[in-house]
Design brief:
Length: 99
């Protein structure tokens, strides 16, 4: 038995992920004595970063309510063209916020 550690860097898989939220890894090898090919696949689910919403003042009927939205980009690349939309009861037309 032998364990081999391999690292898959974001710079290698990042350009190929697109809108997908998973990676499929395949490992294959050959048994020298028999010539038998062995292979294994693994599907790795990527985690989506969370948005955190915090009320900055008490919510009062009929008044605006300030909300803080926090998102931390875990990637080494700068995000561009991001848009946030807030929806909720009584908000008839969600207003996009360009970042």
């Amino acid at each position: 038995d032998e364990t081999v550690a391999m690292t898959v860097a974001y710079s290698e898989y990042g350009p190929h992920v697109g809108d997908q939220d998973a990676l499929k890894l395949t490992v294959a090898g050959v048994v020298e004595e028999t010539g038998q090919v062995v292979a294994k696949e693994l599907r790795v689910q990527l985690h989506t970063p969370e948005l955190t919403l915090t009320l900055l003042a008490p919510a009062v009927v009929g008044q605006e309510t300030p909300v803080q939205v926090v998102f931390q980009n875990p990637l080494p690349d700068t995000l561009s063209g991001a848009t946030l939309r807030m929806e909720g009861a009584g908000i008839s037309c969600p207003k996009p916020f360009q970042m």
